[in-house]
Amino acid sequence: MKKFLLALIAILPFALNAQNIKSTRPLFDKKTIGEIRLTLPMKNWSDALDSMRIYSAGLLSGSVTVDGMKYDEVGVRFRGDKSYQTGLKRNPLTIRLNNSNATQNHQGYTTLKLSSALRDPSMVREVLFHEIASKYMPSSQAAYTKLYVNEEYVGVFINIESIDKQFLTNNYGANNGIFFKAGVDFKPEEIPTTCRQNTFGSLEFEDNIACYKGNYELISATGLTELQEFTRVLNNEPGKIDRFLDIDRTLWMLALNNVMVNLNSYSGNHSVNYYMYRDENNRFQPVHWDLNLSFGSYKNTGGGSGSDLDLKDLQNLDPLLHAENPYKPLISQLLKDPLYKKIYLAHIRQINEENFLNGAYEKRAQELQGLIVVPFNDDKYKVYNLEDFQKSLRETVGKRSKIPGLVELMAKRSKYLKVHPELTSLPSAVTDVLVQSRAKFENKKVNAFRLTAKADRFPKRVLVYYRFSDREAYDVMPMNEEPSTDLPTGVKNFTVNVEAKTTDATLDYFIMVENAGTVSFSPADYTKKPFKVKLSELNK
Questions:
Q1: Are 171 and 276 in the same domain?
Q2: For residues 58 and 75, what is the distance between their CA atoms, to the nearest angstrom?
Q3: pLDDT surpassing 50 at residue 408
Q4: Which residues pair with 508 in a beta bridge?
Q5: Is residue 418 assigned to a domain?
Q6: Last residue of a domain, which of 142, 164, 186?
Q7: Does 335 fall in a domain?
Q8: Average pLDDT, stretch 47-59?
Q9: Peptide linkage before 523 cis (omega within 30 of 0)
Q10: Lowest mean pLDDT: which of 14-28, 297-311, 484-498?
Q11: Are residues 257 and 287 both part of a single domain?
């Protein structure tokens, strides 16, 4: 406890300086705390928002000042499913800046999503999860902000980037594809009685397209037919699912959920809190949402007795949870494929090694808490006191809810995953990755990318994934083994030619090696920084 307090004191000047907000502050700045001041037209504004939330009566009109910039005629409502509670002022909020003026935005953002961090005494779960997830797949930006309503301080909230048109444009290059969210706040009254019951967003196939309206919120103008066809292929023809789904991004999403025990997700009892967006290549892209109950705050997998898991169960959560569950086809159908299963497990190993076994998550959690300790303590509506906030990284908080401390959970979980039999196979190392350039004094220019690489530990298969634009989906091609007599035992040479589309083509690529037990990737951070080479550079 003394070390924790000393760390907070050291960071206090930094946190106090964050109160002096300038209008030029980036909305999702991680080093300062933002300030949002709402002005609503009635004193009992929370009662009004409760009523509108319960009866789905639209948005309450008001004005907002975001880091010193004022916007009028915005729309406000309470949001959230498990995180919303009637009668509280400290509820998650949606603020639509473009409610009346379609062009009104703050730094390009038209919607603000504020999370109250319900059932997270540490106040770091969402920010930490998004930061880790963003290393491997598109994930919302998340930062802290102080919220005032009618000049009353309501508390420190987490400002989370909305999954909207700007997010889609920034991450997928377009925003006009089919777009839906798993789970609905308000079920339609007329749902056919023949629909499967309590399927939520599990992506089970339904013959009657009307059944999908009770479990998915369609955000695009159309898309139910395409959603139905997607689930039909996933459940009945999984060998073709790569035409409909970005497999790798989906495996990353599932691996992140599993490692960080995010059970208020597809991986838990109710298959909710994720989006799917169909990109320009007609493949659905998954996106996480609502992460305040991650790191074991929500404990139900829906399996067995259906009761909550205890701390030991959470620490030892099976990396292959739901692999045999036909009611979770996004997991069970994908993991039936031996290669997809190896990729998924390799992702789990990488997430664990890069964020948890090395203790990086604990250091980052302490930094985040140090930033917000002052505004947290000043919040008279906070659910947890300062003592709970301070001990929540290392100890369980709550006699009934029993929310595990992050370090208490993840220190043992990371060790459990490290030695799990499915995760102990040694991956092949990829070395000597080269692209052949035009030979010196050679007049003829190269018109293809000739890639070569070595791999050890008896590789069974080497694949190169490549594309000529970041708007394209990766194509895949096997690399051919080149016999050699002067290599160490278990090491093999591989090569492949990728034909260039144009004389000024730029190739993005990464390599995957499969051995008997697992797979590995080169470069390891291929999701963000694949290898890149220009044909014009090879011909110099």
A1: yes
A2: 9
A3: yes
A4: 467, 532
A5: no
A6: 164
A7: no
A8: 87
A9: yes
A10: 14-28
A11: yes
Same domain, 8 and 154: yes
Measured distance CA(383)–CA(91) in Å, rounded: 11
**Closest C-alpha to 120, from 140, 141, 144:** 144
3-state DSSP assignment of residue 369:
helix
Query: Does 141 share its domain with 252?
Result: no
Pull the structure tokens for residue 221. Answer: 């103008």
CA dist 218 to 215, 247, 370, 483, Å? 10, 22, 39, 53
d(C-alpha 298, C-alpha 310), whole Å: 11
Residue 229: strand, helix, or coil: helix
For residue 115, what pLDDT band results from cuts at 50, 70 and 90?
A: very high
10 Å CB burial of residue 408 (0-12, 13-18, 19+) is buried
Window from 81-90, 193-202, 397-406, 524-533 with minimum mean pLDDT: 81-90
Query: Same domain, yes or no, for 138 and 200?
Result: no
pLDDT(143) > 80: yes
Residue type, 229: E
10 shares its domain with 159: yes
pLDDT of residue 6: 52
Other CB atoms within a 10 A radius of the CB of residue 361 amount to 25
Helix ranges, 247-359 (H): 247-259, 311-315, 329-335, 338-355
Closest CA to 384 of 119, 24, 80, 14: 119
Q: 194-224: per-residue pLDDT in tens?
A: 999 889 999 999 999 999 999 999 999 999 9
Q: Which pLDDT tens digit goes with each residue over 355-386?
A: 999 999 999 999 999 999 999 999 999 999 99
Number of structural domains the chain divides into:
3
The CA–CA distances, whole Å, from 67 to 163, 291, 380, 445 equal: 21, 25, 22, 55
The reply to whether 452 falls in a domain is: yes
Tell me the two tokens of residue 9.
């004191």
Q: What pLDDT is recorded for position 43?
A: 93
Cβ 477 vs Cβ 496: under 8 Å: yes
> 452 lies in which domain range?
430-538
Q: Which carries the bigger pLDDT value, residue 524 or residue 305?
A: 524
- Are the C-beta atoms of residues 172 and 154 closer than 8 Å to each other? no
Average pLDDT score over the chain: 93
Residues 122, 107: Cα–Cα separation, whole Å: 29
Q: Which of 247, 266, 301 is the last residue of a domain?
A: 301
Phi, psi of 85 (to 5 degrees): -140, 130
